[in-house]
Amino acid sequence: MPSGKFSVVSYNILGVDNAIQHSRELYWHIPSFIMDWSYRKKRILLELGLWSADVICLQEVDRFDELQSDLVQQGYEGVYKGRTGGSNDGCAIFWRNKKFSLLQEESIEFQDLDLRHNIAQLCVLQIKQEQGTVGDKRPKGTTKEKLVVICNIHVLFNPNRGDIKLGQVRHLLEKAHALSLEWGGIPVILAGDFNSVPHSPLYRFLKDGMLDVRNYDRRAISGQVERSLRVKQTRVGRWSSTSQFQIQNGGIIHEETSVISQDFSQITEGSCTFEWTSEELVKATGAASTAIIKHNLNLQSAYSSVQGSEETRDSNNEPLVTTYHGNFMGTVDYIWFTEDLIPLRVLEVLPIPVLQKTRGLPSKKWGSDHLALACEFGFSI
User: Fold this and answer.
1) Strand pairing partners for 108?
2) What is the pLDDT of residues 105-132, one digit of tens each?
3) Which ranges of the chain does DSSP label H, i.e. alpha helix?
4) Could you tell me the superkingdom of the organism this chain comes from (predicted)?
5) What is the model's pTM?
6) Closest by alpha carbon to 154, among 316, 314, 323, 277?
């Protein structure tokens, strides 16, 4: 039986500056009062209160002080890491202070690795009711303490730079693995907006632990289709495409919706090869001499591991939709976990017909253009 149960939420809350910057491109059809931060913040905080998670991983946070002020009153502590460069948003991790103690905090500034201005966070948390001596680093198996590494990331969006996306994820996994070993081989949870669709090469890398990048065009690593479809509401309330799109690599449009997912399951490894420059290989794999990228964490997707409804899941049990705006409807957000953790239940995402009834996200009820993901875990030992 699992012990030490705790819940984790991952939520891209749509940064205020990003919402303004992309208003004409992505949110032209959303009423201005819904896009207003004061309105969205109330909806987001209400939603977080409903889920009442023990750990909250947020992306696109550019009003941290405001969120922290409210969440502290609800019993949370939190840490924030802003993106480098000219952007004002970043990532934040909050934890319920009656449940967890923070033992160690780390972050990654990817600009230091020549991998753009994105960032990642890592926190070692310990369940308080299980704790013995706080902060004691002991070999695995010598204590009943329940510790976990929580990782939070917002991967680069640019669909053309799969090399940079892989590099960012690779560095986070390396850091998470090292931190896990430092604390005695403790489990890892990886949450965030990965800007990649299910079963894309980047998804495969996370799941399988290895990828030969020569089998893929770097522009197809994340499976994203930039500006794939623009949707409009017809007179009868259905959503239809205003442009034609040639879908490649097994991509599919789900019936009368604007959902696009890239299905890479039919691609045979080694069936074709692509040229990568030395610079691209260095960014992706860490060395110009190899096209193989690896990681040492045995990762599983929380949602894929918990059976869901056909209305909300794809053929491999991942959510059909975690984000919905004027140019895209699909899945890019995930919660991953390693062995010694058991996913007990997840928060189901909204069915496509429900989303179709809105004018897109954000909406009167939902404060972001992403949907929150949540999973309750238990320790297996």
Assistant:
1) 120
2) 999 999 999 999 999 999 999 999 744 5
3) 16-21, 23-26, 32-35, 37-51, 64-73, 162-182, 201-208, 278-285, 302-305, 352-356
4) Eukaryota
5) 0.88
6) 323
